[in-house]
Each structure stands twice: as C-alpha cells, then as structure tokens.
Amino acid sequence: METIDAVLRDVALFDGLSADELELVAGCGSNVRFKEDELLFRDGEDADTFFVLRHGSVALETFVPARGPVTIETLEAGDVVGWSWLFPPYRWHFDARALSLVRATVFDGACLREKCARDPKLGYDLMSRFAQITVERLQWTRMRLLDVYGYAGSD
Amino acid sequence: MFDTETSVIAPEALTDLVRALADDGFRVVGPIVRDGAIVYDDLESAADLPIGWTEEQDAARYRLERRDDEARFGFAVGPHSWKQFLLPSRIRLWRARRRDEGFEIDEEPLEVAPLALIGVRACELHAIDIQDRVLLGGRYADRDYAARREGAFVVAVNCFEPGGTCFCVSMGTGPKAEGGYDLALTEILDGEHRLLVEVGSERGAELLRRLPRRAADHSDVDAAAAAVDGAAERMGRHLETGDIRDLLARNLEHERWDDVATRCLTCGNCTLVCPTCFCTSVEDVTDLTGEHAERMRSWDSCFSVDYSYIHGGSVRPTGRSRYRQWLTHKFGTWYDQFGSSGCVGCGRCITWCPVGIDVTEELAAIRATEGGRDGDD
Amino acid sequence: MSTATQAATETPPGPMVPEPFRVTRRHRETRDTWTLELEPVGGERILPQPGQFTMLYAFGIGEVPISVSGGIDGPLSHTIRDVGAVTHALCAAQTGAVLGVRGPFGNAWPVGAALGCDIVVVAGGIGLAPLRPAYQHVLRNRSDYGDVAVLYGSRTPGDLLYRNELQRLRGRFDIQVDVTVDAAEGGWRGKVGVVPKLIASARFDPGSAVALVCGPEVMMSFAARALLDRGMAPDRIFLSMERDMRCGLGHCGHCQLGPTLICRDGPVYRYDELERLMAVRGL
Fold first, then answer.
1. Burial level of C143, CB count in 10 A (0-12/13-18/19+)?
2. CATH number for the domain including C228?
3. pTM of the entire structure?
C-alpha cells in the first residue's frame, strides 16, 4: 500500500510544494474507502476534510424538491473533492456520493488550517492551489451555463 | 484566322449592326433612356440608343444631361449591369411533381435566343469575366449562366466619357477593352463623327463584313486612342490598391467599420447595382395541392439579416458586421476565394448608395489610420 | 440512334436537381433527433467521405445541408435535428417516403493522412453525427492507428446519440469511449461535466495525435483550447464549421467564412487556419 507521501507526490494539486510542506500535509492525511452509494459528506455538515480521489467516481448532488437528487458534477480519480474546509463557514454545500467503490485519501482540514495559520507560506501555497481548482470548476460551470447544445429561442 | 483589320463605320451603321444581329436570331440588348436613367434593355433598333445623352454622377447622385453632340455612347454606366441578363434576378430552376415512386423533376428549359450585348464597357468585360470564374470556373458550372454565356455576342465600347465615380484605372480594368469581345467600338467625335471598330473574334469579323465600312487609317487610330486616354485621365475616383487584400485582413476590427455603420442603411443597393455581386438564394415552393413543387433562384444580398441565418440566429446581426463582410469580400477575400479582386471600379455602388458611402473613401481611411481599433461588434 | 443524339437526350441533370432517395429505415435518437437511412430510388449509390454533407430536400418544403453520418460500409444515413420547417419535415419522413439528395459536398476528415497517429474524436451534441463515419473508418482500419479516444458531451443523458453503438464500442479493448452530460437527473451514473474535462484525462500522445472536433462553435472553441493545453499543435486539430448554405456548389455565396467557402473549402478546417477567423465576432 502506498504511503501518503508517495500519493501526494503523484497528485497534480501538490505539484511544486517543498518536501517539508509535503510532509506537513501528509501528516494530515489518511487512506479511506467508500462503498457504492455511500456519502462522502452531506450538504450542511461541517466541512473539515477534503479528498483526493484515487479510484472510482463521486457525484456532487443537491436535492431539489419534486425532482429528487440532481447531479451537479462528477469527479474521478485524480480530482480533488471539497474546498469548503478552506473558507468560512466551513460547511458543505452539496452531498458527495460514491458512484462506485471509491478509494481516496482524506485530509484533515481543521488540522491543515491550524498548520497554515502557523506557517503562512504553506497557507499561501495551499490557498493558491485550491483557488486554481475553484477557478477551473467555475469555468466548467459557466460553460454549462451557456447551454451550448440548446438553441436560442428553443425550449 | 479572322480579319483583324481595324475598320471605321459611320454612326448610322449601328442600325445595320443591330438589324444583322436580330436577323441572326440574337436577342439584342443595350443601353436606352428610361425612367430618368440610362438602363440596359431590349434594343429594337440603334435609334433606341441614348443618342446625345450623358450622365452626371457622384456619391448618391445621378442625373441625365443632354450633350451638345449626337454621341451614341457618351456616358459611362447606369444602375443596370449585364448580370440582369446573364444571371437574371429570378428564374425557375426546375419543376417537380409527385409520383408513386417519389417525385419527378424537369429542369427549366434553357433560354433559346442567344444574347447580343451592345455597349459593354471594359470594366463590365472584367465583371463578366469575374462572374465567369465564380459560376463556371469551380468544380460545378451554373447551368443557366453557362447557357446564357454560351454564344453571347459581345459588342464592347471603349469609354471616352468617364463617369464621376469611375475608377477603372485604379483597378486595372479600363478604360480600354483588352479582350473578351467580338467587336469593340471606339466612338470618335473629333472631326467626322465615326466609330473605330476592332475585331475580337471570327464571329465579330464575319458580322463586320456585313456592315458598310472603310479601313481605318492612322488618324482614326490616333483619334480613338486620344479619346480613351482622355478618359483615363478624367477618372472620378482613385483607389490605392497595393496590398489591399492583406490590409483588409489586418483591419477587421478597425474603428472605421463603426463609423460606416452609423451611415449604412443596409439597404443593399450596392449589391443590386454591382456587376460582380453574384449571391443568390433558393426558394422551394409548392402549389396548394402539394403535388407540384418548384425551385426558384433569386438574387440575394449579404446586407440582409436573413443572409447569414443559421439555427439560433444570424451570424452577422449588426450592420457593422454586414458592411464589413461586403467590403472585405469585394476587395479582399475575393482574391482568396476566386483568385482576383471582386471590384472593377465601375463606381455604381458610390452613385447608387442613398447616403453616398464611397468605397474608395472608406478604404483610404482604413489605409491611412491602420490599426485604429474599436470596441466590440 | 447516333451517339450525338444519345448524348443530347441523356444529359445528366444539373447539380441543383435532387436525386430521389427512399427512406428505408427511421430511428428516433432523442426527443428531437432522428436518423434516416436512405437508398437511391433509381440511380447510383453515392459514396461520401467522412465529414462530407449532402443537401437534403423535403418535397415542396425546402433543402438543408446535413452531414453524412454513415454511408461507406452501409446505407447512406443522416442524423437530423428538428429545428425548423425543413428539418421538421425530414424528421417526420416515414419509411418509404422519398426525399431528395444532392451531393456529397465538401471536404473530409483527414483520417487517411493520419495513419500511425493517435486519434482523438471530440463531439458535442449533434456534432457526433459527422464524426461517426470518421471513427467508423478508424475502427475498420484499427491497426493503422495508435490510441483512439471518442469523447462526447451532450446536454442530458436523453440527448445522447447512438447510445447502443457507443455502449458496444465501450466493450472493445482498443478504444476509449468517454461520455459526459451538462446536467442529469437521478438515475444517471455517468459523468456530469464538460467535454474539456474529458480531454484533460483522455489517454493520447499530444505530439502524435490528430484531433477531430465537431459541435456548437462555442463548444469547439473550448475543446480546442483544452487540446492545446494538453500540448497539441493547432495544425493537428480539425474542426467542422457550419454556416447557412443554399446551393452547396460555391455559387450562392452564403457559406462564406472569411476567405473560404465552407461548401467548397470546408466544412473540415485546420484549427491554425481557423483560430484567427473565429476570434473576429460577426465575421
């Protein structure tokens, strides 16, 4: 089984972090597994973790009355799930459901927040990387907002 | 080989010319005065020509004026071009009727009487050549256009009276006709009123032999040359054409497009009068029973919003983008598409624009302030 | 009858005359899209190259350009979306109905020139239809190509074309098929997201791949950018462009895209030639 260190070195998100920083982050991580349809986290709960998916896929969902669960986005191996741990009020905005067997590395966000407070450089490095992820997700969401496959004036 | 001996005819011989062509079964068309302009229409006889008429032309201005002589061709070009005969504004392409096994289509019978075009200017010869490239020079030939072009008899006329908006010299298309004609006439008013006749084909030579004529001498040839050279020196407009294709490609966001858009009505007059504009649209129609259908082809203009419509909307929804399309196509991308400029410098678009937009002025402005940027479309 | 007279009476119909083709099969793909298979009523089969289109005529109603979505190894087929009067009539054509066909017109996807390359097919919405003959060609000649990926995005799971075929392709071991939708209700266990994300994770060598892209223009722009981000050169990315067409012969002028005529110089274009043109709004 891979050590957390080795896992981190493979993850694009942590590219460029120094060996010390990687060790600090690894210290907050542990391996975890979810069965199909299990929830990684639930809308409204405290957000104190984030996940790096190693295997399987996860659906971010929200429940809409009369429509049921609507999938906002799916994420796969290599993707980061969850940034709400970084920004107050530290609460999840969506459900995250395993669509298959999922193996992930979960990171203790509360622990990391503390380390970032003590080490501003680590804080800056993590913050800028997570900002990049949010930007990318925002771009994708905006693309879908354009509804490019529909036609202007059609239903 | 045909007889290339240059001849001289009297103006009265034009009557014989027109009659000979009619007798040979041609539909003879040429300039006449009608509705306050010199237009192209059927010529019953040479008496229908605009004898003693000329035009005063400028941006958004056209007036007929009387000359103080009996010149047959003392004018330039009016609102019509020969495309109305070669590429008529509306024709039927075919008729169809339903059958048990689907449908059956009968193509429209092709025009029977060949055309004789009297009074084709040098710029117009180039315009016809340009349309030939578009409609005959690609992978597919336009059936109707090919039939009308085939066998058309061309009597060219070298200009001695340029119009106020002419710039054929800038475009390298005149005022002298260089080829593509059966006969070319140069009217001489200096001294005896006569016409120099140059032969451009075997058919032309054959027709000339049936007209009362005499051989041309040096004074005739010199007088004709002087008349044409004089026209070249009195062009109404000039256009710097160096690198124009790339100039336009580099300036697709120039602020001048915004400027012209405040004036352009997108009325499409320019495309109607332009002798090279070839855009058409196709309309499928059916009768009330639904058993019979027809396909019609008619002129279209890139100035209409509908022209660039695809599902969802028009690609060119603004006047700015449509004017830019027309001008950059005419002077720029036409080279990429068809290997030549699309403009022959006839000036019609300048004369007949209701707000007087002058393409030579617009292009000069872009050239002068290259790189002048504007905002979004 | 002498040959001269024979020639005169047997002049083939001009290129603006549709050939009658009978609908032999009709299949509903989605709520607004149908695939029609066509056979010539009397004349010859046509042999379209992948990427080409025909002008399809609904008797008395009109004619529209539709990409060929099958026709080399099987019957001529077109996948048509009902968006207007003509496409509505075409989509309503029952088996046995006779439509008119002119063409094929246009140029082809460069599958022949891409021998030895990895092939990345990127489709959005109905854009999968013109790409289908391309991936079918690649699969018929599988050993001539490297890694092959078909990346496809549509609005919802209900809007996916050729689902059965895509599922069958998924079952092969020598092709990646990755599908995503913009939005999904419960029950969809597949990906929800955008096509550029599929591009980011597809397996291909950017240095030796050729990408074939088709879909709404905006989607093609995003996809091209994602392919460039993967390290592909713009002259190895090909897009299929669309404009209003009235003749298909290069005579009516409508399909102009800058210095080109789509019916004659396209619809398939190299991205390095297109990039500049696509950047000018309202060109």
1. exposed
2. 3.40.50.80
3. 0.92
